[in-house]
Amino acid sequence: MSLRIVVCVKYVPDATGDRHFAEDLTVDRDDVDGLLSELDEYAVEQALQIADEADDAEITVLTVGPEDAKDALRKALSMGADKAIHVEDDDLHGTDALGTSLVLAAAIEKAGFDLVVCGMASTDGSMGVLPAMLAERLGVPQATLLSEVSVADGKVTGRRDGDAASEQLEAALPAVISVTDQSGEARYPSFKGIMAAKKKPVESWDLEELEIEADAVGLEGAWTKVDEAAERPARTKGTIVEDEGEGGKQLAAFLAERKFI
């Protein structure tokens, strides 16, 4: 039986662009270029390596987002994934992490899965909570923040590296995992892969097909919202401390005045 791998990816604003909020205090995704989240490229890479070691495996990349999010799917397909699913619906605008996990879980169940692979976080929100939420909604075990992964005998195993020690984790399939940026350099799509990606199937689903009510997602259904946002203040000229024997005291007074100490 084929190993069914689903990789969750996200289309995010380019970090080198002029990122800002829209009028409704959601991230403006229209006026800035977007791309596949760099941390999700590691998830795609690990899925490809797992598939290479399996007797038979199929990789589906899944994203939730606007029309342009198909660009993230095409990048993953050009790396070597087999097919893609794009969940797009106007009512999804403003959906937070909880709502996104609801939609992704419904799509994963509809697609069928043995292993769900995620990046450690997205490069726009940087929350890193989605894999745990998915595992809870799907009712399967999770093994997160792995820097090394393998699948064999109906189990996924991996190594999680901490500051003081490394842990060896194991979970029975089906399961959800997330991988870090230390798990292995993501491959560059070849010209052949880019051309092949154009012919690979991309399905589009909406909330109705996933049997999700509109009021459970979007800004109205969000549990977290941005109440206020302001531009980062411009950098000001620094203070030069000329040390003539009193430099340490001047520095301590400066830090105390600003309540750093």
From TrEMBL:
Q: Which UniProt keywords apply?
A: Electron transport, Transport
Q: Does the keyword Transport apply?
A: yes
Give me the Gene Ontology terms describing cellular component. cytosol
Pfam families found in the cross-reference section: ETF
Molecular function terms from GO: electron transfer activity
Alphabetized SMART domains for the sequence? ETF
Tell me where on the tree of life, at the top rank, the source sits.
Bacteria
Signal peptide position in this chain?
A: none
SUPFAM superfamilies cross-referenced by the UniProt entry: Adenine nucleotide alpha hydrolases-like (SSF52402)
Domain Electron transfer flavoprotein alpha/beta-subunit N-terminal: from-to ranges: 24-214
Cited InterPro entries: ETF_a/b_N, ETF_b, ETF_beta_N, Rossmann-like_a/b/a_fold
This protein's cofactor list reads: FAD
Task: Tell me the function of this protein.
Answer: The electron transfer flavoprotein serves as a specific electron acceptor for other dehydrogenases. It transfers the electrons to the main respiratory chain via ETF-ubiquinone oxidoreductase (ETF dehydrogenase).
Family, according to the entry, reads as follows: Belongs to the ETF beta-subunit/FixA family.
Q: State the oligomer form and interacting partners.
A: Heterodimer of an alpha and a beta subunit.
What is the name listed in the Swiss-Prot or TrEMBL entry for this protein? Answer: Electron transfer flavoprotein subunit beta
Q: Which organism is it from?
A: Streptomyces palmae
